[in-house]
Amino acid sequence: MNILALDTATEACSAALLCDGSVYERHDIAPRRHAELILPMVDAVLAQAGLGLDGLDAIAFGRGPGAFTGVRIAAGVTQGLALGAGLPVIPVSSLAALAQPALGNAAVVLPAIDARMGEVYWAAYDSGQDGLAAALVDEQVALPDAVRVPSNRQIFGVGSGWGTYRERLERVLHGRLSGIDPERFPLAKNMLPLAVREYNKGRCVSPEQALPVYLRDNVVKQV
């Protein structure tokens, strides 16, 4: 199976390719440079694998939530590539991609992305029957004090929201926090196993349906 993935929902810009069981990736922490970097990253991973777009089975993208402009860039680039190559598209939650590599740290992973305006994008995940991120709480945008995880299990926090609002988030978890990693971002390589699951379950969409998820109504105010 050959799947290209890309994500520009946060400060991180990344592209990754699953090609015959091998993973090739490029990523950089480069706010406001995503439009400049993402296509060269795509070209680089395809070239490293010796593969063209016509050799792909699908393209996955981080559909958000995240920065308004960043989420639009990923969706727009994916639509263009998929339309040109006649490929299906796999939208993947940026919060799920953020949680995926942290699943082994605690029974529950709570990814939180700083949404600005005093809020966080968040959700809660555990390992599903397939060992991949399975949602316990659907993604939403809220004040840090309004985060609620209906579980008595230990929780690991990940993402920029923890860097900005650690004390407020920790307070609402009532001693269940086992640790945090506030420096982690959603990356395309961590989307790949989630994209494979969606592909195998037939959850692909046409390029025209590759739409961003913002969660917030007044997205134009988001930086």
Describe the structure.
By secondary structure, the protein is an alpha/beta fold. The protein has 5 helices and 10 strands. Strands 3-2-1-4-5 form a 5-stranded mixed β-sheet, sandwiched between helices. A 5-stranded mixed β-sheet has the order 8-7-6-9-10. Strand 1 (2-7) and strand 2 (12-19) form a beta hairpin. Helix 1 packs across helix 2. The model is unreliable at 218-223 (pLDDT under 50).
Strand content range: 25-35%
- From the spread of the alpha carbons, the general shape counts as globular
The amount of helix comes to: 25-40%
Widest sheet, order of strands = 3-2-1-4-5
The largest sheet is: 5 strands, mixed
Structural class: alpha/beta
What letter string, H or E per element, gives the SSE order?
EEEHEHEHEEEEHEH
Write down the Rg: 17 Å
First-last Cα distance: 36 Å
Say how many strands there are. 10
Number of helices: 5
Summary keywords:
alpha/beta; five-stranded mixed β-sheet; 223 residues; 10 strands; 5 helices
Provide a brief overview of the structure.
This protein has 223 residues and is of the alpha/beta class. It has helices at residues 34-49, 68-85, 94-99, 160-172, 188-200; strands at residues 2-7, 12-19, 22-29, 58-62, 89-92, 108-114, 120-127, 133-142, 155-158, 177-181. Helix 1 (34-49) packs across helix 2 (68-85).
Helix and strand arrangement:
Blueprint: E1 2-7, E2 12-19, E3 22-29, H1 34-49, E4 58-62, H2 68-85, E5 89-92, H3 94-99, E6 108-114, E7 120-127, E8 133-142, E9 155-158, H4 160-172, E10 177-181, H5 188-200
Parallel strand pairs: 1-4, 4-5, 6-9, 9-10
Antiparallel strand pairs: 1-2, 2-3, 6-7, 7-8
